[in-house]
Amino acid sequence: MRIKATQVILLNMLCAPMAWAETPSAYDLCLLDKIKQQNGDDTIAELRKQCDLDNVTQTMAGKDKPEGNLASERYQSERETAFEPFVMTAHRLNYLLPITYSNKINEKAYEGTEWSEGLEHAEAEFQISFKVPLNYGDLMFDGDLLYFGMTLKSFWQVYADEISRPFRETNYRPEVFYVAPTAWTPFDGKTAVGFGIEHESNGQRQDLSRSWNRIYAQFYYSKQNFLVAIQPWWRIPEDKKKDPMDSDGDDNPDIEDYMGHFELTSAYKVNSFEFSFLGRENFATHKGYAEVGVTFPIWGKVRAYAQYSSGYGSSLIDYNQNQQRIGLGIAITGLL
Questions:
Q1: Choosing from 121, 201, 261, 266, which is the catalytic residue?
Q2: 261 carries an active-site annotation
Q3: What are the residues facing 234 on neighbouring strands?
Q4: From CA 323, how far away is CA 258, in angstroms rounded?
Q5: What's the pTM?
Q6: What separation in angstroms does the CA of 108 have from each of 113, 160, 169, 208, 237?
Q7: Which stretches of 89-207 are assigned E, i.e. beta strand?
Q8: What count of other Cβ atoms lies within 10 Å of the Cβ of residue 36?
Q9: Where along the chain do the CATH 2.40.230.10 domains lie?
Q10: pLDDT tens figures, 111-151
């Protein structure tokens, strides 16, 4: 005879009422939650099996996990929800800055175009970034994941009514990358390593085209409310252009002189404030880029966001333009 789970639980509660006076375990709470959600056709054995599997999965995922490690908690949460319908997993920061101001507009890049005059120092900026896991279970190690990622960053001359408010620049960054947690726990923190391949371009016509391809490695370290990641890269070489208007060949052969050979990212969360830093540097040319930001909640998932940057490469079209930028707006994701 097939006895339904709800009937068995009610019988157990009547026969052993004192057991439920004790503090419920994670297994008990899981079982109660499954009972609430089940449709009446599952047996108690089936529900117990589900809770046993959940407990094993959570134990393996949280093994040796420092208490309150925000980066590890986010990583685990992403694994649990990555394949749910209607869920998009954030990659980099997603934000909208209705107002940004640059102290130096890159007018030289637009000489001879319809935008050579009329560009404004003030513009809007936004970034959309997401990632999609390509493996459901572990590939080689516990907790490792292979991702496809996409980041789109746009600069909109919304205040330049004389030139019909164009999108001055949009950068596209598709990438495929692999990340795996490691067993190394220096200073009671968590570490992970990875590698990937990335293309970045602005999709412009030949005289404004900027692009490059990179193979990179990654190292992550996190502890409690702190995260730091370093990403060195090697640029995939391209042939030299015979003519600037050729579609084939290198659009920007000196880009590494300004964008450097690595990127450093860090985040620190205190109370409701999250502070972030992004930096690049070429130690041979002494050219680089630094960006600092701060977010704090204002309503629901929406967070206020302030950003300041200085140096080369806030966008591809500006890779050789030294400028300072400041922006105010909102963010809907964070790094921690």
A1: 201
A2: no
A3: 215
A4: 12
A5: 0.78
A6: 10, 17, 14, 11, 26
A7: 89-90, 95-102, 122-133, 145-156, 167-181, 190-201
A8: 8
A9: 70-331
A10: 888 887 889 999 999 999 999 999 988 899 999 999 999 99
Which one of the listed residues 72, 77, 199, 286 is annotated catalytic? 199
Mean pLDDT over each residue of the chain, to the nearest integer: 85
The DSSP letter of residue 17 is G
Looking up tokens 């502070």 gives 275
Cβ contacts of 166 within 8 Å, gap of 6 or more:
115, 156, 157, 160
> 53, 26, 54, 30: which is closest to 9 by C-alpha?
30
Q: How many CB atoms lie within 10 A of CB 252?
A: 18
Half-sphere exposure of 225 (CA within 13 A, CB side): 8
Task: Give the tokens for residue 158.
Answer: 């919304």
For residue 77, indicate whether it is catalytic.
no
CATH of region 70-331, choose from 2.40.230.10, 3.60.10.10, 3.40.50.620, 3.40.50.2020:
2.40.230.10
Which residue matches tokens 């991702």?
147
Dihedral sign, Cα of residue 301, residue 304, residue 165, residue 103: negative
